[in-house]
Amino acid sequence: MGITAVKIRIMPTSPETELENIKEIVKSLVEKKGGKNCKFEEEPIAFGLKAIIAFFAWPEELELETLETELKNIEDVSSIQVIDMRRAFG
What we know:
This protein is an alpha+beta fold. It has two helices and four strands, in the order βαββαβ. A hairpin with a 2-residue loop joins strand 2 and strand 3 (49-59). The chain starts with a strand and ends with a strand. The model has no long low-confidence stretch (mean pLDDT 93).
């Protein structure tokens, strides 16, 4: 089986939301479900609101939907969106 490279946009509920806490929870969930190499970027949206962009390697044989459901249920997260998913080589 292969590995997929996944990129997910995580939107916090407000500009005051502590992004570092969300990042720690996301990294923990990704690794618990079988993902690896979780990295983050912050993307400015508007009026001080920043989205978290999570990048990680995901085993192709595992469903991503269960992880998506758990990410949506994180406190202070308003929405998530898979913005890129492709087979990784190497």
